[in-house]
């Protein structure tokens, strides 16, 4: 048994792993569970000290066989984030940029979100949030709701329009009179 002060014998560590095998394993591990952008995968390979030339070669091969596809990733990302979190196109575009998606590819994915769907998502967000705002001054409620929509990437025009419509509907609802 080696003590702490004894140097570790190089042979005890086993053979050094082949960087290409290491890179391939990292990519497969990263792609298990969900798709990722080429940029995210390249960053992960760099973090694990996979040489750039090997990383590029592996990523090219993974693209060639369809395991890495930024266009498919962008479409999936937009659909999930717009539906699940109610994000507007502007916020989605920013997220795709952070993921390293090319502007043209991002634009094609964002074109799948239509303006009506975006307004419907904003409306749903406001309706959910209104439940917790009963009894607040209308000005305070408007400010908070518009702020929430702004953080999700909605334009001020859309945010104010949806908030005013939903607040008007809520205040005119006989069930909520006198609250």
Features:
179 residues; mainly alpha; 3 domains; 0% strand; elongated; disordered C terminus; RecX_HTH_2nd
Commentary on this structure:
The protein has 179 residues and is an all-alpha fold. It folds into three domains: 19-64; 70-110; 115-173. 65% of the residues lie in helices and 0% in strands. The chain is built from nine helices and no strands. α1 packs across α3 (52-64), α5 (89-98) runs antiparallel to α6 and α7 crosses α9 (156-172). It is elongated and about 65 Å long. Residues 5-14 and 172-179 have low confidence and may be disordered.
- Structural class computed from helices and strand pairing: mainly alpha
Number of strand elements? 0
SSE pattern, N- to C-terminal: HHHHHHHHH
Oligomeric description of these chains: single chain
Family: Belongs to the RecX family.
Main location: cytoplasm
Domain RecX second three-helical: 69-110
Biased composition (Acidic residues): 7-19
Offer a concise description of the structure:
The chain is an all-alpha fold and 179 residues long.
Reconstruct the topology from this structure.
Layout (H helix, E strand, L loop, with lengths): L18 H13 L6 H10 L4 H13 L5 H16 L3 H10 L4 H8 L4 H16 L7 H14 L4 H17 L7
Helix pairs in contact: 1-3, 2-3, 4-6, 5-6, 7-9, 8-9
